From TrEMBL:
Cofactor note: Binds 1 [4Fe-4S] cluster per subunit.
Keyword vocabulary terms for this entry: Amino-acid biosynthesis, Iron, Iron-sulfur, Lyase, Lysine biosynthesis, Metal-binding, Mitochondrion, Transit peptide
Keyword Manganese attached: no
Name by which UniProt lists this protein: Homoaconitase, mitochondrial
A Pfam family assignment: Aconitase
Main location: mitochondrion
Amino acid sequence: MPTSLTRTILFTTRQKHLIFNPINRLFINRRFYASEECRQNLIEKIVQKYAQDISPGQKVKSGDFVTIQPEHVMTHDNTAAVKTKFLSIGAQKIKFPRQVVFTIDHDVQNKSEKNLAKYASIEEFSKLHDVDFYPAGRGIGHQILVEEGYAFPYTMTVASDSHSNMYGGIGCLGTPIVRTDAASIWATGKTWWQIPPVANVEFKGQLQDGVTGKDIIITLCGIFNNDEVLNCAIEFTGDESIRGINVDDRLAISNMTTEWGALAGVFPVDEITIKWLRERVDKLELSKFENKNLKKFMTSDRPFEHPRINHSRIDYIEKNPLKSSSGAYYAKHLTLDLSTVSPYISGPNSVKVSTPLIELEKQNIAINKAYLVSCVNSRAGDLKAAAHVIKGKKVADGVEFYVAAASSEVQKDAETSGDWQALINAGAKILPAGCGPCIGLGVGLLKDGEVGISATNRNFKGRMGSPNALAYLASPAVVAASAIAGKIANPAYLSTSPPPTPKITYTLNPPDEYTEDSAVDHDSVISGFPDTIKGQLLFCPADNLNTDGIYPGKYTYQDDISTETMAKVVMENYDPKFASIVSKGDILVGGFNFGTGSSREQAATAIKASGIPLLIAGSYSQIFKRNSINNALICLEAPELVQLLKNSYNPKEKTIRTQLDVEIKFVEGKVLVKGLNGVDNVFKVDILGKSVQEIWI
């Protein structure tokens, strides 16, 4: 099934130099250049290495749909759900066991018999198929993939989790896939991917003392907050400036390119990266007996060499660097002068709102909880920064300060340095290495009316607990300072001078040497797919409606939730009244960047469970759209309709039953809305391609 599915998407519609894009419903008139003529950027060059079934001499470019065979694919607690999909399609054997990695990290505080049985089942499945397995307590999957070399410079590694962008911090093209894709890779080694537009984000100048990678990405998310990089892959440039950013901070920046709306965020590989890799070789040599997955590589007849991070492999990338070609095309060019970046705070409850710490500190915002957890900011350097601030002091009365290392290795390093004990002495509450509060699981969640400050990557409403709480994001040092002050506070060593205004530029480049032609046959509805869908229009006007709002994290890893229950909890964090308002057959219209956030498949399936057959929005997160396509939830884009509805209805209402009848005519590519502002309105939408229709059927 996965093989035929992939072929349907990739191969049945290719005609000469026309490649069909099943998401945008267009043929792309693509010229395939000979290698000496093609000017690929770094993202395209990495994808080139992993693209399958392409013609000799053909060079891939942004916009192309390709079959990829990634270096590695990681699943975590959702392995159980992927396993169900894998078995349901009749697959019996994982095609390439060394390609697959299982890491248990999300719900590790849950010691219920049911959850422990699920984890045991995943471990048994890994043994059956000879797949590398990392148990609960080893750490967060993304950190493990970096520590153990599954993410490696100039490779492409994917994960069924939205923060796989993090691998870009060491020059690996990390990008999220969804559960259906993971099952396909297990079975065939391959999946499909559209190479996104590539944005060049250029850094200039040098960071001021005390300013971190977290401050950089919070600044970018807050200033470029109009979807400038939505569904793009980012290539970070500016060699001199980047040399001043350590690997931990690069990983943090790449990690949160997800929240910025991007599908990848890749740093160049430089001497800082190479030095970090060399140090990893030495460290892995010392800890080799602790990793059960390495036993198969230990033999008595030759010295041990780590299968992924070793000097031979590092020598090769050092001698054969992969860089963008001179004159390579970028869809967008953004610049940020790092010398104008100061400590920033994100929120409350949005990564698109950021404020200089100095300004927010003046507001005396009291906090109830502080968090130093998650894959973005719980590495050894982060723990050291927090310990430096908090050493010899105590967490303020009435404040709970939760700390979890990104991995067991990180925790061991922090224990050796004394930083771990400094945090404990100050009153920190220790959690196991894992996701925990960041995903809204386990102890220490925000309650109604509480305020939290966190070194995590997401502060969506309701993600870390109650939807009636406020969550801010900051660097580890600021979180620690706030924990001891009892309010959002500035570490003593940071400047209290008025912050500079970040110096930025943004350029949207003209299209590259290809055009998009609406070459789809208008007689394009295939047997089994409806010509028309009718319903009543239900409007949720919010832009950036995220997956936590659509389907709360506390339900995400309950694999046995019925569709009836999913229908009852859909949109719970966005509008608790939604489930009582929606009716079967309604056509839901959302705002712009609908479905941003995590890769959870249930955001799409819960909407479908509520009886909604079709979604219309101004734009979508690409991950959400991919989930929708794979699960037969039709997605159309009609920005003019969305804007007209926003102008016609009270934007403060979360869910609006418009009483408007809507008819979607797929053959004509039209949406007819009857009675909007007293007239019938027709909106043009792209015609759904046959590949999407086949998946739906």
